[in-house]
Structure formats: structure tokens, C-alpha cells
Amino acid sequence: MKKQINTWFVAAIYYIAAFIIPHIIAIEIGHFLPETKITQFFGSWILPIIIIMGGAWFGAYYINKYYIINNAKKIIKSVLIYMLIFNILFPILTVAANELYNPFWFMANMTEYILNKYFLPLIFNATLLIVFYLATAKFIKNNTSQTKNLISETNK
Question: Do residues 15 and 83 touch, judged by C-beta distance below 8 A?
């Protein structure tokens, strides 16, 4: 039987099922790839996108199976807010805190540091955010009509 719960809770479950778990799987698969330029590119850019799309499908399947979704757009918005906080803002704040801890090293290596710690991860996370949004918008749908049909069938 499907449950009716808060939108933010469904979004948190979806975020864990569709992003956190697949992200851990992508990291573990990346450890088994050999160290070549092609596999580094594949393991760093292509594999996470494929796994995130599969995770979005699995997360949507899971929440559609167990939860009533009245407003899919609210869930998608909440999931994107979680992703912005945990995948873009939190890492930037962590790196910024590290810079405050050791400012002289940062000043000496500023160009390379900004490129490797800010710019490339920001592009990667923005790419994942776009892919995750498109996959989420495709897979998460309102399912209240299905629930109403189930309730009317059980009342007969």
C-alpha cells in the first residue's frame, strides 16, 4: 500500500536512492578501472552521468512504488535544492575553509588551485545537476490517479 508523506521527505528519499547510492557505486567502480587517460575520462565524466541516470530511474521507481506523489514539481524542486546544497555549496565552503586555514600556500598556488578545486568540479557538478534534473523530470510523475483507482477497486 502506498503511503502519503511530506514532499521534503519523499525528496530526501529520492535524493539518497537516486544520487547518493549511485555516486558511491560510481566511486567504487572507478577504483577498478585501470589508470589510463581514456579510463580516467570515462570514469570521471561518462560513468557518473550513466550511473546518475540509472539512479534517477531507480529512485523514481522506488518512490512511485511506495509513496503517493501529488505534486511532482515540488519534489523535483526539493531534490534540486538538496543537490545544490550538498553537491555545490558544501564543497565550495569546505575548500574556502581550507584556504582560510593556509592562506600563504593558497596565494602561491592560486591559479592551479582555483582551476582544479573550483572550476573543474563546478563544471562537473553543473553537468550532473543538469543531467539529474532532466532525468528526474522525466521519471518522476504524479501518481494520484493510480492511487484513486486502487482505492475505488478495493471499495467494490
Answer: yes
- Contact assessment for residue 68 and residue 149, using Cβ atoms and an 8 Å cutoff: no
Chain CA centroid to CA 88, Å:
11
pTM of the model: 0.71
Whether the CB-CB separation of 86 and 61 falls below 8 Å is answered with: no
Q: Identify the burial level of 3 via C-beta atoms within 10 angstroms of its C-beta, where 0-12 means exposed, 13-18 middle and 19 or more buried.
A: exposed
> CA nearest 36: which of 26, 25, 44, 28?
44
Q: What is the DSSP letter of 109?
A: T
Residue pLDDT tens, the chain, 156 long: 788 888 889 999 998 888 888 878 877 877 777 777 777 777 777 888 888 888 899 999 999 889 988 888 999 999 888 888 887 777 667 666 666 666 565 555 666 666 666 777 778 878 888 888 898 889 988 887 654 554 544 445
The 3-state DSSP composition of the chain as helix, strand, coil percent (nearest 5) reads 85, 0, 15
* Relative orientation angle of helices 7-15 and 47-66, to the nearest 10 degrees: 140
* HSE-CB of 18 using CA atoms within 13 angstroms: 33
